[in-house]
Automatic annotation (TrEMBL):
It comes from Lentzea flava. Residues 1-25 form the signal peptide. Residues 33-173 form the DUF4232 domain. Keywords: Signal. This is DUF4232 domain-containing protein.
Length: 175
């Protein structure tokens, strides 16, 4: 019974993270290549379930139009690509409010942000070493230029510990 209460509390925190919207104004950090910058400032973990916030800042001079899912590539510490299925929505990994909402067209004006999130389970049922992504590259849409996901405080680094699951869910862009 004690463990059930902790699990429910952690699940509520994860749901709140995913349901809350991103900040309206972009940070003033330099380094906005191609007019957008991808950041993550939070990863929540509970009972093997992980949720990572993702934000795109429009640092260009033109409006950014989004309608779909971030395009994601995962790489290990040596920048070698991981063989991971990137799923739209939770892909059956779990149930989180808002995570499986269908994509909606949104416009991100210069200086504004939009959000997304990743979800995965850190489960290892193999004798093989677990898959761990230390580098992530994102694009706003298929065919767009991929750029690195940057950890910003309080997040210290990018660490996606997939274990042997081989899959990660991605939330559609939202405001």
């Amino acid at each position: 019974m004690r463990h059930g209460g902790k699990f429910l509390a952690a699940t509520a925190v994860l749901a709140g993270l995913v349901a809350s919207g991103p900040a309206v104004q972009a940070s003033e950090d330099p380094g906005c290549a191609a007019g957008v910058r991808f950041t993550s400032n939070y990863t929540e973990a509970a009972s093997g379930l992980r949720v990572m916030s993702v934000e795109v800042a429009n640092c260009g001079a033109e409006a950014l139009r989004l309608n779909g899912y971030p395009q994601v590539s995962l790489f290990d510490e040596d920048r070698q690509p991981l063989d991971v299925a990137i799923l739209e929505g939770t892909g059956g990994i779990t149930v989180l409010d808002g995570f499986n909402d269908p994509p909606q067209p949104i416009t991100v004006q210069p200086g504004e942000t939009a959000g997304s999130a990743f979800v995965w389970r850190n489960t290892n049922t193999s004798l093989e070493p677990p898959q761990v992504a230390e580098h992530v590259e994102l694009a706003t849409a298929p065919g767009a230029v991929q750029q690195p996901l940057i950890a910003v405080p309080p997040q210290r680094s990018i660490h996606i510990d997939l274990g042997s699951t081989g899959r990660m869910g991605v939330r559609a862009w939202y405001r």
